Amino acid sequence: DIDDYYNPKNNFLNEVIDKKSGLPITLSILYVEIAKFIGLDLKIVGFPSHVLVKHGEEMVLDPFHDGRPVDIDDLQEILDRNFDGQLEFEPEFLDEIKSEKILVRLVRNLKVSYSQSYAHEKALRCVDMTLAIEPESPEDIRDKGLLEEKLLNHDTALKYLNSYLDLNPNAEDVDYILELIRDIKTKVSQ
Fold first, then answer.
1. pTM of structure
2. Non-local CB neighbours of 98 within 8 Å, separated by 6+ positions
3. Looking at the predicted structure, is the pLDDT value of residue 21 above 60?
4. Which secondary structure element, helix H or strand E, spans residue 78, and what is its range?
5. What is the pLDDT of residue 1?
6. Long-range CB contacts for residues 141-148, cutoff 8 Å, separation at least 24
7. Domain ranges of the chain
8. Which is more confident, 3 or 74?
9. How far apart are CA 119 and CA 109, in angstroms?
10. Does domain 99-189 have CATH number 3.40.710.10?
11. Please, what is the Cα angle at 169 between 164 and 173, to 5 degrees?
12. How sure is the predictor about 7, in pLDDT bands with cuts at 50, 70 and 90?
């Protein structure tokens, strides 16, 4: 649903079925399951920033855009749009992703939706779910620290933000995280 893309409801299959619109990932899940009933073997493709489905190695479909077939030029256009022309198509972008990766992507989408609507406790629950599957994920460790700080859980925030820096000392946001850690320590000491 382009007009309401970040609505948390777009992550729930029952809502997607009722509205007949959703996110690329939820629509892809439905495509795969419905295809089983008619004997088609579709696979979910973990294309960067835009989940797709494929049939065999030749046919790639975009459930978010009415299931239209996409070719290499279309795929590069998606990458250009979502990565400002900084990412070139690679064949492995069309590899099937497994159930746990689908779940992680779905829960991360939900985290973003909740964060944008300032539902920080719900976003934190999403991060906890992804950390249960991928406990060493720097992105989720950082986000847990950021969300704990928004919820004024300073000690827990410090723990996770420091863990993030230990795991990812050269991250692009190191300066921001270091400044945030200093700010939290100042708050705690007052």
1. 0.83
2. none
3. yes
4. helix 72-83
5. 55
6. 141/167, 142/168, 142/171, 142/173, 142/177, 143/111, 145/177, 146/180, 147/115, 147/120, 147/123, 148/124
7. 2-94, 99-189
8. 74
9. 14
10. no
11. 75
12. confident
